[in-house]
Amino acid sequence: MASNHVIITLQDVRREYNLGVECIHALDGVTLELSDNEYVAIMGHSGSGKSTLMNVLGCLDRATSGSYILDGEDTTKMSDAALARVRNERIGFVFQSFELLGQLSACRNVEMPLIYANSGWLSRRKLATEALERVGLKGRMRHKPNQLSGGEKQRVAIARALICKPSILLADEPTGNLDTKTSREIMDLFRQLHNEGQTIIMVTHEADIACHADRIIRMQDGKVISDLPTAEDPASQHLKATHTKEAQA
Amino acid sequence: MIHLKRAFYAILRWILGFFRVLYQSIHLALSQIWANKTRAVLTMLGIIIAVASVTAVIAALSGLKAKILSQVKTFGTNTIFIMPTRPDEGPKQHASWWEIRFEPEQFDDLMEHCPSISKLGRQSSGGRHTVSFRDRSAENVNVNGIEPDCFQIESRTFLLGRPLSLMDEMQTRQVCIIDPRLQNELRLKRDCIGQQILIGHNAFIVVGVIEPRPSSPFGDTGSENYEIFIPFKTNLKLQPYPWIYAIAESRSAEVSEDAVAELRFFFRRTRNLEPGEPDTFRVESLKSALEQFNQIAIVVTMVAGGIVGISLLVGGVGIMNIMLVSVSERTREIGLRKAVGARRSAILTQFLIESVVLCFIGGLIGIGIGYLLTQAIANIPKAELDMAHIPWQAVAISFAFSGTVGIFFGMFPAIKAARLDPIEALRHE
After folding, report:
1. Bridge partners, B31 (sequence order)
2. Co-location of B360 and B272 in the same domain
3. Under a CB-based contact definition with an 8 Å cutoff, are residues B205 and B176 in contact?
4. Which residues partner with A95 through β-bridges?
5. A37-63+79-248 in CATH: which number?
């Protein structure tokens, strides 16, 4: 199923914050390649540079040096307006704290990216309905965020991320504000989306969440320290060990 | 051709897109304002007060103007008033009214010397008298000596009988013209022509009933008191040294300035004024009176405009303040919008439109309150403002001003919002 068409290429990407007194290397020469329909987890402790990497991948931030090629286009030289367009058309964001607008219904929240894609009212309604159906919230169209549970909120946010049919879905700690059971449900949804062909990049510090991905990239001090399929990553082996222990007990 | 067609569609799409963004932003702005109703109204207060007051002032002024114009129409636009005045400077500055007053002979030969004048009528106020008929009487009635032409110049209409005639004048007949209210007061017959009444101790025969003059902003023209007119010379006989003034009519509106000049020249000579000495009389055409009023109106408008300007400024600062609060409250929202693809221009437009919408709503409420104020003003008794109305220009100006205030004071917060860094904004607590 996985085609080997490369959609993301990072070449020696650096991101430095000049604080006057010292220069912080948030990304210190990251080189990565991601193919279409991959499901990747980026792991690392706080300060490891995983959030910065996420921002760069999401075109919210620019690399200080190096090149970032998305869908064959070099984003490092794009204007702000062009980057806004890339974010709109190619990238879907899912945030830890959902970031839904309280005064808008679920449907209108989901529609929002389409406003900036300049699409008409009717097609917006149709696409939003489809996206909400896809995440299993068919009957919740008119609900306001405060009438929804945490899991449902995150589903609305995922529907919003998917509505412009992005090349990549970027999830930043998507289960950080959810309980274990809801987290599982969201992970199942991610798996389902992945099976439907969606490329997913997920940033997390929880090993058992990361294990839902197919590939785990570990970061430390702005560098990639390991990049392995999940089965070979120490996290999954540790998890497997605990599972067998639980099974034995 | 194909290129042209493509370009055309591109432009069409751009325009459509623009309206979509506009519609979206207005919708969003309205829901935002609706969500913070109290705050929005308090914010708009400055704009509301400014617009309401400017609307009311303009309505009052245009009402006054309409009123004066309608008065002028009843007088006739060619009318010129001639009255004695004490000058502000010169040797006659402290002259007594006795020295200043017109004497009847000073009008002799006026018609020969002033070719632009077609009619002249002298009037004299004969003071206030008690008028009585049998056992009924009215006190403090203004008795005016009047020449026949006055009725024509003022184009006054008669309800009954006839105006005073040249014969009445020449023979100093004891005849009078009364006002219908006086007729009622004295319980005269319905057809009172020929009945005899007493003015003071002299008997006069009623020859006509005149329609009362509509009340006028020029002051007391007899709307409050009863009017009674007797021939000019009859009045002189009863009272040898009355206060005399005159009204004249120029041949046409075009020559009214000439007529005024001729009259001035004539009176300066008959009243023996030295060259350089200021006039001891006033010759005023209705046209110049109207111009004077217009000047006063401009001054009042400017003063009101200044006050309105200040309150718009205060209102605008209020708008700016609340927009800044709104931007900082919605920092995360701005971050999110940027993350899902909103450009700077889209964020800028959104906040700018929000402040403009806020100002427009304020303007609308202001015009509504201004309308109510106008209604209230129009119903103040004796204020001569019953013709007060809001001209459409006032509405247009109010809207233009509130829109401008919205753009001007909304610009800074909107730029601030548009410049926010999405990463920082999303991290904002």
Report:
1. none
2. no
3. yes
4. none
5. 3.40.50.300
Name every residue whose Cβ is closer than 8 Å to that of residue B281 and which is 6 or more positions away in sequence. B82, B83, B84, B85, B100, B102, B267, B271
Neighbouring CB atoms inside 10 A of B392's CB total: 7
Distances (CA, A) of A206 to A71, A170, B251: 29, 16, 103
pLDDT at B219: 47
Q: Could you tell me if B141 and B196 lie in one domain?
A: yes
| B84/B113 same-domain check | yes
ipTM entry: 0.92
Are B32 and A103 within 8 A, CB to CB? yes
- Same domain? B273 vs B130: yes
- The candidate with the shortest Cα–Cα distance to A14, out of A223, A248, A240, A246, is A223
- Residue B254 in tokens: 């075009």
Q: Is B196 helix (H, G, I), strand (E, B) or coil?
A: strand
Say if residues B236 and B122 touch (Cβ distance below 8 Å): no
Q: Do A101 and B21 touch (CB under 8 A)?
A: no
What tokens does B248 get? 């004249």
What tokens were used for B277? 């000495």
For strands A39-43 and A215-220, give the pairing: parallel
B218-245 residue pLDDT tens = 444 444 578 899 999 999 888 888 889 8
The length of chain A is: 249
* A171 neighbors A94 (Cβ within 8 angstroms): yes
Whether B409 and B355 have beta carbons less than 8 Å apart is answered as: yes
User: What is the distance in angstroms between the CA of the first residue and the CA of the last residue of chain A?
Assistant: 38
Look up the domain containing B229 and give its range. Answer: 79-284
**B32 interface with A at CB cutoff 8 Å:** yes
| Of the residues B284, B300, B326, the one at which a domain ends | B284
Helices (H) and strands (E) in chain A, counts: 8, 10
Residue B229 tokens, joined: 């007119």
Spatial neighbors of A154 by CB under 8 A, at least 6 apart, are A94, A98, A174, A175, A177, A178, A182, A186
Distances (CA, A) of B245 to B79, B80, B277, B284: 13, 11, 21, 12
User: Quick check: helix, strand or coil at residue B282?
Assistant: strand
DSSP-assigned letter for residue B186: T
CA distance A233 to chain B (A): 31
Q: For A99-108, B21-30, B237-246, B254-263, which range has the lowest pLDDT when averaged over its residues?
A: B21-30
Residues B327, B413 contacting (CB under 8 angstroms): yes
**Tens digit of each residue's pLDDT (9 = 90 or more) over B271-287:** 888 888 888 888 888 77
Q: For residue B98, which phi and psi values (nearest 5 degrees)?
A: -60, -40
The domain ranges of chain A are 37-63+79-248
Both tokens of B54, joined, read 């400017």
Q: Which of B266, B284, B302 is the last residue of a domain?
A: B284
Q: How far apart are CA A182 and CA A161, in angstroms?
A: 19
Distance from CA of B339 to the nearest CA of A (A): 6
A54 closest CA partner among A64, A44, A42: A42
What's the gap in Å between the CA of A81 and the closest CA on chain B?
Answer: 6
CB atoms within 10 A of CB A51: 20
Number of independent structural domains in chain B: 2
Chain A contact for B28 (CB, 8 A cutoff): no
d(CA A159, CA A36) in angstroms, rounded, equals 20
